[in-house]
TrEMBL record:
Keywords: Cytoplasm, Electron transport, GTP-binding, Ligase, Magnesium, Membrane, Metal-binding, Nucleotide-binding, Purine biosynthesis, Transmembrane, Transmembrane helix, Transport. It catalyses: Cleavage of an N-acetyl or N-formyl amino acid from the N-terminus of a polypeptide; IMP + L-aspartate + GTP = N(6)-(1,2-dicarboxyethyl)-AMP + GDP + phosphate + 2 H(+). Substrate binds at residues 978-984. This is Adenylosuccinate synthetase. Belongs to the adenylosuccinate synthetase family. It comes from Clathrus columnatus. Homotetramer. Homodimer. Mg(2+) binds at residues 708, 735. GTP binds at residues 707-713, 735-737, 984, 1010-1012. GO terms for molecular function: adenylosuccinate synthase activity; GTP binding; magnesium ion binding; serine-type peptidase activity. Its main location: cytoplasm. GO terms for cellular component: cytoplasm; membrane. GO terms for biological process: 'de novo' AMP biosynthetic process; IMP metabolic process; proteolysis. Its cofactor is Mg(2+).
Length: 1298
């Protein structure tokens, strides 16, 4: 996926995402900032952590250190002073996972300990942040005893436990360990092994609290942490994304003396928050001594899973916390503070406006309407100040230095995240200190987009965020209601939305009633009305954008997608408004609320959000189940008409996979169009790299030579991960053979595909035949029956609006050429004609009558054929779809599409070895015209290349081997046609052909097949150049006469003389074999030295007995530079070698020109136009001579380039000069021969007309510097057909049809 949609998505999605940033040093003049980013690595299908340091000296001077991969550093946190860095590290050597705790002071590792056997995995989720304890017990049933885990994103995590890491620090130069005990000169500190001790809070015996989110107080005596409590019925409600589940803030106090050898110590624990409050996110100020300040967040227990937040503050000298910011029920207007909405506070939110060490305020981000703003809260008065109110950007505060310096990340719908450094005082100032680098083309594309927040009339607080191309016009629209339901979409960077918007879609992100940022009143308004109010808000938002002229309506114009509760809404919309949406994508959707209760990690959500009571004694009654089902999308299942694509995370604990699966079965059972992708290892958010990439792949597989390269094998391999396999051109003259193992006994079965896409071997893949294909219906059904007889299910959709089809240039004689001929002459039959039988019959009879007129009467049962096609139409109807709408809906809904090319580039009707070609466009352009898709939708183009060259049928074949080596290639490679059974002609690999193919199709990578056929050859040759008359041609010639006479220049490689059949990687290939492949890559333009070609060596081997596929990256193919005006175009470097008619043309031009010149000037000199017999000046003879002259010029077509010169003039200049002679002669005769004017008026009329037009034409020729485009000009000289103007437009000769 590279230069178009999927490549753009990759570039955008691989941009770094800031995960943490903090100050290692900060003062008014210099800041040293540590930055960690997460980077998606699509090649390795993983996410990597990249770290770097940024030093700011002034607003104009920012220094960035080199980046380093710290993926195995799972978390890092600085000390209060910034001088030390604590790191949790995990390594994996392929078999063993190990965990370490490290303390760094600058670049020195001060302390480290292996904790692999001390405890289980580190808990790094924001709601846990504590390792899992390793327990040993004498209880034989301990490993079977049920312990509730923490649910989504923390599967299997049952006992997070706090650990204390202790080490003895040595004094460093200039460092004071303690104010009361400075180090003495020369004193050495004895080294002690670091210790790791579990902390056991002193709680009542029946307590079910487990702890996480711990933070040290600056006195080093106390720890503040969040305790998570089970409900009284033994549940542990999942804390991820839910602010209403039982939790509390605790103050833990360490004992004065901690034994060195202790594995566990008891710490006193004091609960700071009441039971009716769910508290989280404790933060402690970094003041090194008392008093310090503690803040945290809270929400009510129960009710909406998120809501307006309360902010609490506690001074270390106070006994009771103070409510600083309360929840807001209803703001006065949109400018009034709507309440605080933030999941976690920044890691250090404290600032001091007087730049002292005593914090005066905290700073955080918060949702405000559809924006995310930056707010500052006074720790004493609770006064709220808006620091950043940006209508275009979304801001997130990450950290502060405890004084006036603040770190934040900002992004917009069209601008990727940037790291900002702010300085707070009486006013705030911000500077960008780090931003990602975009390619120029990507930046230009982003600049074509615009984003806008639109309020929906009469539906407050409903708002939408739109993203579209800047030019305002109605667009097809993708509506995306958010999940939750109590979250908010904000205008932040979204790679997938950007890619879809650049494709011409209007992105509509809907914030409906229940979204955060508008006051608690509107959160509560959705409780008990989910599935009704949120659905109506979403539909009204869609209608408003249509009525406002932003969006189109109708088939193929409206789409919807959503995840979780957004998927719930998408399913509702297609059920409640059947037929309105053309496609729907749902990611882990809630489908049947009544069935989610017993399997979700948050069963309370289903009760409370839908207005049902929930408590420890709640059981699912019939009444409750019925109410929940009526509010669910499953209630509307029978009304669904829209094709659906489901993305399901296999490990989802929030909305179990059974929800999506059961919806799939329900739709499938009702005959609906539905597909489902299941992603192993993914949870509710589907945030692993493979799942994120799904939906941005449109891959094209094309033959790079003369066909039979093995495209079907590659398609079969790739189809395992493809939703839609598509044919775009050709007919049943193509042939792909697939051999697979069928059934439990793995019976080897051969499938021959001619017309039907070969991806159908994958039972989950749908085949689509595009409109560029011609179809012979009897052959279509014969192929279906043959495939189904071997166990392949071909029922369903797949035939697009296609042409119906029936000289020896080596064709397959399947009627493909006549079908395309009928299509070009606009007399062919299309599939949709079949379903209007009367109209079809009229057209069919008309076609037959036309054949009778052309070929004479022949035996043909016209009425019988009409009846036959009527029967075929009934069989065909289930397979027919509106192809363009179907394909674009699939693309918009995220389906992965594979285009299976037919034939190959050298058989292309325009760029192949014409006329020894097929009748369709087999190049990359045929994909677009054959399917109705724009070029930018194509993600990756793969050229399939046989390790040698073959072709079937007639036509020049420069590297053909008519010897024992050619026979060897035929026999070992089994070179017999799938469609015709004909023996294929074989020859050496032709890199001139391959490079020409690359120039036209722009392959992103090549797949080399049948490499093992060369195993036994002692020497292997490769064609690298064509030589004609001692001159090397610079490219592949269009003139087949030239091609048939070229001499081929080869490079000879030594063979490897060993079998590579069982080779599994490129490194295992013999050295000579690798050199062979490397030379091929280099010749067509694969350069490993390019920094962007890091994957140039990536090889995917797929092997059977006679074929081997090697996928290698191919990029940076050189482009052709066209000449400037006035230069000679020379693409072949060949001498002038015209067609056979050129000699006759020169003779005719010479005779006609000579006669015209002699007759004209003799008549003038002797003052008698009737003298000299044959050379007498008679108008009829003049016209005949001019006609012969014109015919001669038309014969002199520029089949080769104007390389030969005579007296400094090239060929075309000679023709132009020659064409001027009769014009000059006739015109001069009329002008000079004045005395005959009054005597011969008819003569004056005849020759005067010739003279005036002739002189004008001469000057026009001189002005253009080329031949005329006017055929009539041939009468006066210089009319060389339309293509003679090629030089004026500076086009290469190949661009012209001759």
């Amino acid at each position: 996926m590279a230069r178009r949609l999927s490549k753009l998505y990759k570039e955008l999605a691989e941009l770094p995402v800031y995960t943490s940033s903090y100050f290692l040093q900060s003062n008014p003049s210099v800041s040293n900032i540590r930055v960690d980013t997460s980077v998606r690595d699509f090649l390795r299908k993983t996410k990597r952590t990249i770290s770097k340091n940024i030093i700011t000296v002034s607003p104009d001077t920012v220094v960035t250190s080199s980046v380093h991969d710290s993926t195995n550093a799972l978390a890092s946190v600085p000390s209060y002073s910034g001088k030390r860095l604590g790191v949790l590290r995990e390594t994996f050597d392929g078999t063993t996972k190990k965990r370490y705790v490290e303390v760094w002071r600058g670049s020195k590792l001060e302390a480290s300990k292996d904790v692999t056997t001390t405890h289980e995995d580190f808990h790094l989720h924001p709601e846990a942040k504590a390792p899992e304890i390793t327990e040993e017990s004498d209880d034989k049933n301990a490993k079977y005893r049920y312990l509730p885990d923490f649910g989504e994103q923390m599967n299997g995590k049952t006992r997070p436990t706090l650990y204390l890491f202790k080490w003895k620090s040595r004094p460093y130069e200039g460092e004071v360990i303690s104010p009361n005990n400075p180090p003495k000169g020369g004193e050495e500190t004895e080294f002690e092994e670091p210790t790791v001790i579990a902390l056991k809070p002193d709680l009542p015996g029946d307590s079910t609290f487990t702890f996480g989110q711990s933070v040290f107080a600056p006195d080093n005596k106390h720890i503040y942490a969040t305790g998570y409590e089970q409900t009284s019925d033994g549940r542990r409600l999942g804390p991820h994304g839910c602010w209403n589940h039982p939790s509390a803030i605790f103050k833990l106090e360490l004992p004065k003396d901690i034994p060195k050898e202790a594995d566990e110590i008891t710490v006193s624990a004091a609960r700071l928050t009441p039971p009716h409050v769910a508290a989280r996110s404790p933060r402690v100020s970094t003041v090194p001594y008392d008093p310090y300040t503690v803040v945290w967040l809270s929400n009510p227990v129960g009710g909406a899973h998120t809501s307006s937040v309360s902010l609490w503050v506690l001074r270390s000298t106070d006994k009771m916390p103070k409510l600083l910011i309360d929840s807001v029920y209803e703001p006065k207007d949109s400018k009034d503070f709507p309440g605080l909405y933030v999941e976690q506070l920044p890691s250090n939110p404290f600032v001091s406006l007087d730049n002292s060490k005593i914090p005066s305020h905290i700073i955080t981000h918060s949702v405000w309407g559809s924006l995310q703003k930056v707010l500052r809260f006074d720790l004493r008065s609770g006064e709220i100040t808006t620091i950043v109110d940006d209508p275009h950007y979304s801001w997130t505060i990450t950290n502060t230095d405890g004084r006036q310096a603040v770190l934040a990340v900002k992004s917009s719908m069209t601008s990727p995240p940037e790291l900002m450094l702010g300085q707070l005082s009486s006013s705030s100032s911000w500077q960008t200190i780090d931003r990602p680098v975009l390619s120029h083309s990507t930046r230009e594309q982003l600049d074509t987009l615009c984003s806008e927040i639109i309020s929906i009339p009469d539906r407050y607080p409903t708002e939408v965020i739109t993203l579209r191309l800047s030019k305002k016009k109605p667009l097809p629209m993708i509506s995306i209601p958010h999940g939750g339901p109590h979250v908010t979409s904000t205008p932040e960077f979204n790679p997938s939305a950007i890619c879809l918007a650049l494709e011409g879609y209007l992105i509509n992100m809907i914030n409906y009633t229940g979204s955060l940022g508008f006051g608690q009143k509107h959160v509560d308004a959705l409780i008990g009305r989910a599935g009704e109010l949120d659905v109506q808000d979403s539909y009204h938002a869609v209608q408003h954008l249509i009525q406002s002229g932003f969006a189109e309506t109708g088939q193929g114009k409206q789409f919807v997608q959503g995840g979780s509760h957004g998927g719930f809404l998408a399913a509702h919309l297609i059920g409640q408004y059947p037929g309105f949406f053309s496609a729907a994508v749902m990611r882990n959707p809630v489908i049947s609320t009544g069935e989610i209760l017993s399997v979700s990690d948050i069963p309370d959500w289903a009760y409370l959000e839908f207005g049902q009571p929930f408590g420890p004694t709640s059981t699912l009654s019939t009444k409750t189940f019925d109410a929940l089902q009526k509010a669910s999308p499953i209630f509307y299942i029978d009304a669904v008409q829209t094709p659906v694509l489901l993305h399901i995370g296999e490990n989802d604990r929030r909305v179990p996979p059974s929800q999506g699966r059961n919806y799939y079965y329900a739709l499938k059972g009702r005959g609906k169009v539905v597909e489902m992708l299941v992603f192993p290892g993914n949870g509710h958010s589907l945030n692993l790299v493979e799942a994120e990439l799904a939906g941005f792949e449109i891959t094209v597989v094309l033959g790079a030579q003369w066909g039979d390269e093995g495209k079907g094998k590659l398609v079969d391999i790739m189809a395992a991960d493809i939703d839609l396999c598509v044919r775009c051109a050709g007919g049943n003259n193509a042939g792909h053979t697939i051999v697979v193992n069928i059934g439990p006994e793995k019976v080897k079965t051969t499938f021959d595909f001619h017309l039907i896409p070969s991806g159908l071997v994958n039972p989950l893949c749908i085949g689509l035949i595009g409109s560029g294909v011609v179809v012979h219906l009897p052959s279509f059904f014969n192929e279906l029956e043959a495939l189904e007889s071997k166990g392949l299910n071909c029922k369903g959709h797949g035939l697009k609006e296609v042409e119906l089809g029936g000289s020896s240039i080596g064709t397959t004689k399947k009627g493909i050429g006549p079908a395309y001929s009928a299509k070009a002459s606009r007399s062919g039959l299309r599939v949709h004609h079949l379903f209007d039988h009367d109209n079809f019959a009229v057209k069919f009879r008309k076609i037959v009558e036309g054949r009778y007129k052309r070929y004479g009467h022949f035996e043909y049962d016209t009425e019988g054929e009409i009846q036959r096609y009527k029967e075929l139409a009934n069989r065909l109807r289930p397979y027919v779809v509106d192809g363009v709408t179907y394909l674009h809906s699939a693309i918009a809904s995220g389906k992965r599409v594979l285009v299976e090319g037919a034939n190959a580039l050298m058989l292309d009707i325009d760029y192949g070895t014409y006329p020894f070609v097929t009748s369709s466009s087999t190049c990359i352009g045929g994909v677009c015209t054959g399917l109705g898709i724009p070029p930018k939708l194509i993600g990756q183009t793969i050229g399939v290349v046989k390790a040698y060259t073959t072709r079937v049928g007639g036509g020049p074949f420069p590297t053909e081997l008519l010897n024992e080596i050619g026979s060897h290639l035929q026999e070992v490679g089994k070179e017999y046609g799938t469609t015709t059974g004909r023996r294929r002609r074989c020859g050496w690999l032709d890199l001139v052909v391959l490079k020409y193919s690359c120039l036209i199709n722009g392959y992103d990578c090549i797949n080399v097949t049948k490499l093992d056929v060369l195993d036994q050859l002692k020497e292997i040759k490769v064609a690298v150049a064509y030589i004609l008359d001692g001159v090397e041609l610079s490219g592949f010639p269009a003139n087949l006469d030239v091609l048939s006479r070229v001499k081929v220049e080869y490079i000879t490689f030594p063979g490897w003389n060993t079998s590579i059949e069982n080779t599994k990687s490129i490194d295992e290939l013999p050295e000579n074999c690798r050199k062979y492949l490397q030379f091929m890559e280099d010749f067509i333009g694969v350069y490993e030295t390019q920094p962007l070609l890091l994957d140039a060596d990536y090889v995917n081997l797929t092997i059977n007995s006679t074929s081997m596929g090697l996928g290698t990256t191919h990029q940076n193919i050189s482009s052709i530079e066209l000449p400037t005006l006035g230069e000679d175009v020379n693409m072949h470097n060949s001498k002038v070698e015209g067609r056979a008619g050129d000699s006759l043309g020169f003779i005719l031009v010479t005779i006609a020109s000579g006669y015209l010149i002699l007759s004209t000037w003799l008549a003038i000199l002797l003052n008698d136009p009737r003298s000299f017999g044959l050379f007498a000046f008679h108008p009829p003879l003049q016209v005949l001579a001019i006609g012969l002259f014109a015919y001669g010029i038309l014969t002199l077509q520029p089949t080769s380039q104007p390389k030969t010169k005579l007296a400094g003039l090239n060929r075309h200049q000679l023709i132009i000069l020659g064409s001027a002679f009769p014009c000059i002669s006739v015109g001069t005769l009329v002008i000079i021969w004045n005395k005959n004017i009054h005597e011969k008026p008819h003569f004056v009329t005849w020759h005067g007309t010739f003279g005036i037009i002739g002189i004008g034409w001469m000057f026009l020729q001189m002005f253009l510097g080329a031949g005329s485009v006017w055929y009539g000009g041939a009468l006066f000289g210089g009319g060389m057909k339309a293509k003679s103007i090629w030089k004026y437009h500076r086009l290469p000769d190949e661009a012209l049809a001759y």
